[in-house]
Design brief:
The chain is mainly α. It contains 9 helices and 3 strands, in the order αααβββαααααα. The chain has a 3-stranded antiparallel sheet with strand order 1-2-3, covered by helices on one side. α2 packs antiparallel against α4. The longest helix has 14 residues.
């Protein structure tokens, strides 16, 4: 039985398992200096919360300009084919189109945008994290997935919408992301600190 039972804000050693907003920005800035295909892979991970294997499986037909989203095949659903659409900024879609040369003809192609193995994808993301000066359990592909969900919950996105974007079968899995410490929690704590005497 796997020891991993969903999101935990901290691991057994007390290390944060997701990136802060500033850390995610640093990651995306470092990605801008990487090879264009590495940059787009990192962008899609950060903006969709998808698993690396799901991003690696994307084809030109998954880029939906009309709905302004990425259509992702859920690879955790073993018995049936399930797709989910995750909205992304139009600029991200245009970057994908430009870098990968997606044309109307290409849109019908089932050729993968990134013909990488899981190991290659992992190592390229790890290199961008290193270039951004990030390390630890949160500075991983899984950490980016957690970061996406934590950010969505902290920005007030409804849990059922986050569940859909993440491809979770159970909303209880999604609800775990509300346990992360965020800006709102810090503001509540600051209000409490005002009643503490300062030395």
């Amino acid at each position: 039985m796997s020891a991993y039972r969903g999101f935990k804000p901290f691991d057994e050693a007390g290390n944060r398992t997701y990136l802060t907003t500033r850390e995610r920005e640093a990651f995306l800035e470092a990605a801008q200096n990487a090879d264009p295909s590495v940059m787009t892979f990192c962008m899609i991970l950060a903006y969709t919360g998808a698993r690396p294997s799901e991003v690696s499986a994307l084809t030109p037909s998954c880029v939906d300009l009309a709905l302004q989203c990425i259509v992702i095949k859920c690879l955790k659903k073993r018995r049936k084919v399930v797709f989910r659409a995750v909205p992304v900024p139009y600029e991200v879609l245009m970057t994908l189109v430009r870098v990968h040369g997606i044309t109307e003809t290409e849109k019908r192609s089932d050729k993968r945008l990134w013909a990488w193995s899981r190991t290659t994808a992992w190592s390229r993301v790890a290199q961008v994290m290193q270039n951004a000066g990030l390390s630890g359990i949160g500075a991983t592909s899984r950490g980016l997935r957690h970061t996406f969900a934590v950010s969505a919950v902290q920005c007030g996105v409804a849990l059922n919408m986050v569940q859909k974007w993440m491809g979770h079968a159970d909303i209880e899995t999604t609800a775990l992301y509300a346990n992360a410490t965020g800006a709102e929690e810090l503001e509540i704590a600051k209000g409490m600190w005002r009643s503490f005497p300062l030395s």
